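User: We ran a pulldown and think these components assemble together. Before we commit to crystallization trials, I'd like a predicted model of the whole complex to look at. Sequences follow.
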Amino acid sequence: MIGLEHYLFLGALLFVCGVVCMATKRNAIGVLIGVELVLNGANVNLVAFARYNPAFEIEGMIFSLLVIVLAAAEAAVALAIVLNFYNNHSTVDVDSAEELRG
Amino acid sequence: MSPFTNLEPFLFWTIACITGGCAIACVVTHNIVRSATWLLFALAGTSGIFFLLGADLVGAIQLLVYVGGTMILVVFGVMLTAQGPFISMRTSSGEWAVSVAAGLLLLSVLSVAISKIGKPTPPSGSTVAQYAPKTTLAEGMTKEGETNEVASKSPYSMAIGQGFLGVGVGPAHKETVNGKETVVRASYLLPFEIVSVHLLVALIGAAYLARAKRRKEAAV
Amino acid sequence: MGTLHDHPFLWFVIATLLPLASFTYLLLVGGVRNFARARRNHPAADAVYQGLGGDQPGRRAAYVGMAAIFLAFVCSAMGYVTYFVEHHRVEHESERIAEENEKLDHDLKSLRRKGRHFKGAEAKENSAKIAEIRKQIKENQQTVHESEERLEHRWSGSLLWARVWSSSAADPGSGNTLRIGARIDHLSGLMFVMVTFVATLIHLFSSGYMSDELDKQVEDHQVHGEDGGHFRRRGRFGRFFLFLSLFCFSMLNLLLADNLFQIFVSWELVGICSFLLIGFYYERTSATNAANKAFITNRVGDAGFIIGLLIVWTYLGTFNFEEMFSRLRAPVDMHHGHVHAHGGHHKQAVTDLTHRFVKADATKDIEGGKEMTMKAANEAGQYVVIMPRPMGGDHEDEGHQHYNAGELVDAKDRPKVGEHGYMPYWMLVVAGLGIFLGCVGKSAQFPLQVWLPDAMEGPTPVSALIHAATMVAAGVYLVGRCYPLFAPETLLTIAYTGGITLFVAATIAIVATDIKKVLAYSTVSQLGYMMLGLGVGGWAAGLFHLVTHAFFKALLFLGSGSVIYGCHHEQDMRKMGGLFPKMKITAISMLMGVFAIAGIPLFSGWYSKDAVLANAFGFIREHPQHVLLFVLPLITAGITTFYMFRMWFMTFAGRPKDHHVYDHAHETPWMMTTPLVLLAILSVGVAWGNPPWDASNSFMETQILHHAQPESVEVDFHDEHHAAHAGHDFAGGLALVMVVIGFSFAASTYWFGFLDPNESKEMFSGVHRFLSHKWYFDEAYSALFVRPAMAAAGWARWFDTNVVDGLVNGVGKSGLAVSRVHGFFDRVIVDGLVNVVAKVWYAIGSWLRVFQTGYIRSYVLFLGMAAAGIWLLLWVLTMAPAAQP
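Assistant: Here's a predicted model for the assembly, 1207 residues in total across the polymer chains.
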């Protein structure tokens, strides 16, 4: 029987995949893909809670909708940043951006 | 008992395996175009999970906005920044090893945390129908006290839409209004407005950022 | 044969003496041969010399040694089967009687309840019935007792060796005696079979491996003469088997012994044999150094052992195991109606001290001793009460003492027969730690693990013998034997020593490139598992791992010997690779060993490692503050899988890296592959139970080792065992996850080439350097002990020449010196202090700078790791109150 923990585990898997993706991809778009995966993992959790917790039924869904919309906005802005980055460094390799090195 | 009398486990495992597998493939592949394609499948699989959870509206929006819109953005990004047909920027093995180890650690910790929660059973049928205000009962809905057939079958888009319009649909709580205790439900008009403004700001920002180069060239 | 029939333990005595006979024979023949060789110009002596083979060493030594050890195997196998059958019959019988007694006990209680309402004749009848049942119970107990005693009598025996002080007429029992004795139980019987079996195979293997030594002249490629050529010497085939025989005798004698002193003698014999065999190629400086290192390191441990022995002798006056334990542990209270049966302890409160140490505090002084109050088992006490020596004969009504917390006992300073003695509790802890220190040295535990990897200088079969069956097993065996002697503090030390050892050794094994060094560190690590298992109360689990490990480690070592022999004495794994098609038998049998040590399900290592981990898990469930004792072995399970598969892939898979080695590689002769195949079969199936896929139901653990477990273990660790049993699947599952992770890393690095080992090495160059220098243990010991000793010697010389001679001159120079000191003070101390502060901050800054990489990705990584770390921390912290009942 499928219970809440199965959905939560799927969400955790997506989340961890996203984190690993962010940590390993050198392509800026790859990092963006990682962020999308993380947000999706969170969304799966929200909707799963909405299904299994009556007090959270509407809110879970509304939150997940907000997350989707914010993710879209974030993707747009991130893409703009990536384009700008590409214009400045003529590459999308995030390792070439090391201006923060101490 | 045939395994198909209750489809949920079968569907869940199928969709979950597709989603998880695509997510892992998305991480593992070195080619960014393939990575984006795997992401597409992973997002579509997630929408399947949403449908399975009964959240039709979220699933639909996931398909529309994410799979349709965001993916297009990503693919555009890939195309606009591509330096060759199959770019792969390799990460060193050591970094891979550390990242995967950290990821597994994170996953194991999360799994432990998940195993600590109880096993709640989902409520049978929707409770949204009770939240729906009487004045906005649509045609085909029954009167107060009777089972709201239509609402319990396909309730969410309506309830969520009402919630965004400021009608109280959320969990009920008691509040004292003018010295009289009344039951109040949460509505989501303010978050809706905030998100709208946020979207607007983000879009303007994105347009501004993307324009930056032309301005620079113009200056030079 | 009649004696053998009455005292079947003599089978084991014969098994022990056979290698000694072979040793004596070889020693005599060798002595005569050398004697004759020195006088060759005399015709008679020459005839003797030529008759014994002349310059050419014969294979005879191998046949003699092999025959002896094989017969020893046959004897011990026969003896053990007899013991097994007999012991199970007795146990079955006593279980049946225990059940019957419980039923009778029940009847008795109901009769008593009824008896309250009876009057007159009925009451009389009832009380008669009660008396009858009581008698029956007593008789049953007597039967069990008798049959157990008969078993004991048949399977043990001893000879008086020395009486240490004479007995006086006033106190007939006061003489302390040293006896040579033998005692067989499931543990020693099983170990006998295992040791003789593995040793037989190693003898067979050696007769192939050492065949180079059969030549008239052996050229040692690693030793260079003064003329630049290689060193040449006569073959030493016979000498090798001479040492092997002595080694086997010492080990078997150690297993046979029923007392600590005999064990100590064998212990030293094992030590000297290892010294001789590690330094077998004694022309090589590295070999002599390694032999010295092994011997000296072991002396450090033995110093502790001797301290332990002295304490035991001083307070307990005996070295016999049974007597020692009966002095320290409270006896079963027969008069209390306690039914002697397995698993009957769980309802006791902690105040019942049966099978426990009787801790006590002194309340007042009495004549010649102290009056003490007994403490509950979980309270601290200043002293440990020593049980009285038995009076001998039938003393049914000796002064009876109940061992319950809160009761009083008179403990004498110099207890006579039948009187209680006492010893300070910390002395007991020190005695246990001392004995354990001996085991630390022998079993190469932290911090004395440095000798074992260097011992690889010996011939490979010797490494197999040392690592699998004999020397290192001796330490673990002794911990198992002396278990009831160890206080909880000692056991905790054992557990932590094992935990640290297993982790440290496993991390070093990751970077080792010499195929034998990898195996050496894996041995150290696996021994750590055994010690940890023993320390957390998993008596059967730790010894179970010892037995399974003996088989698969012997297999792995002999396999590596086969590879080395097949590659013409090339040991560097970086030059191997792709050997699978050339050495199929070796490769496949070694793969079985790798599966077993990694803990792949259904292979023997899986059962025993799961058992150890389950016990560790049970322990931390009861004591959450020791969570490290579970985390370390769990992580190490993954590391073990990684480095073992790394070894196998580097050797047999992939492309050949050195064509010279590859082209000349060949499969080894049957004498070497037969032991491999036999050991491979045992490495798979030795731990199977019914059904084989139930990890907690291994025949060897549940049917053999659990029966040998001292009663005190179950009493001391009842809750832990319960938790271990409940958490067996969980711990096993976690271990399996780690195994999968370790395997996938090894496969993706060394098989598929998905990850590049050189890149990782560069990335973690600091860690790599740290590990390949073996955590700088050798350097640290050199700095801490060797160099100070050298410096002290140099300083003494300096003192002689300069101070004694230069005292007069010194007076004149002292003025100069004072001003120099002053200048030094200004320059170094005053300026230095300021500089040090600056440097410290600079160092902290540059260390922190490392984390400011500027790469977005590494920040994400730090974030993820921090999140996981905080979660783990919270989990551990919140587990503590949750685990408290």
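Chain B touches chain A through 90 residues (CB under 8 Å). That may be worth checking against your pulldown data before setting up trials.

User: Thanks, that helps.
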